Amino acid sequence: MPFTLHDRLFVLTGAGISAESGLATFRGSGGLWNGYRVEEVATPEAWLADPELVWRFYSMRRRDALAAQPNIAHIALAEIEQQLGNRFYLCTQNVDDLHERAGSQRVHHMHGTLFESRCVHCNVPFPDKALYTAATDLPLCLQCNAPVRPHIVWFGEIPLDMEGIYRELDRATVLLVVGTSGSVYPAAGFVHIANQRGIRTVYVGPEEPLNAEAFDETVLGSAIVALPTLLKSLSS
Fold first, then answer.
1. CA dihedral defined by 112, 113, 115, 121, rounded to 10 degrees?
2. What phi and psi, each to the nearest 5 degrees, are found at residue 82?
3. pTM of the predicted model, to two decimals?
4. Other residues' Cβ atoms within 10 Å of the Cβ of residue 38
5. I need a surface site. Which of 45, 111, 141, 236 has the fewest CB within 10 A?
6. What residues make up the domain containing 216?
């Protein structure tokens, strides 16, 4: 049994769990998101060069995420949280809201969220589900009239609240990683920190991640099959 009801569980999820709901990943498709290269739409330089293109891309991602539904892996994690309470912490690399819609409450989006935006000057995130697909649609801050950008951590930027993430990881007794490639840092390094702390580490995904050798246990299989099984063992 990977963990019990007495453990403190730190869960890290990646694109693989959202892919089970039909949302595209880019590391599994030749470095492209629906035909867009990372350098064109997901870096600070891309934003400075062409904010209209960036907003058109993230509007497309918002539309896709709104149409997607949580899968049974998302639901299984929400049910684990209900049993563990404050001994559960979910850190996700994903920017969709499928964990929340499945019922998870203790969720931290280290790479930001699709459904928030923020002023480039005020730097305060606010809820936003609007679609901006033309230059005339681009939002401006109501307070200072500066441009508003997606509340997304782009390549070259620092993930959100790393101090809080490491604090929760230090408290954990089990690290459960679901559906990540093991190639994006700092998240790919969580397993190495866990090893140094004596925290048990479990990976779930259809393929071995690049850091597979660092895990105590690897469960190969889709999240929608493996996670409900793990939940059943936790409840038994």
1. 0
2. -60, -35
3. 0.93
4. 15
5. 236
6. 1-23+71-111+159-236
Total structural domains within the chain: 2
Query: Degrees (nearest 5) of the Cα angle 191, 112, 28?
Result: 60
Pick from 91, 123, 152: which residue ends a domain? Answer: 152
Tell me which of 111, 121, 151, 192 is the catalytic residue.
111
pLDDT tens digits, one per residue of 194-221? 999 999 999 999 888 899 999 999 999 9
Active site residue 109: no
Question: Do 84 and 9 contact (CB within 8 A), yes or no?
Answer: yes
One-letter identity of residue 228: P
Together in a domain, 121 and 185: no
pLDDT digits (tens, 9 = 90+) for 10-67: 999 999 999 999 987 765 555 556 677 888 899 999 999 999 999 999 999 999 999 9
Q: Do residue 133 and residue 234 come from a single domain?
A: no
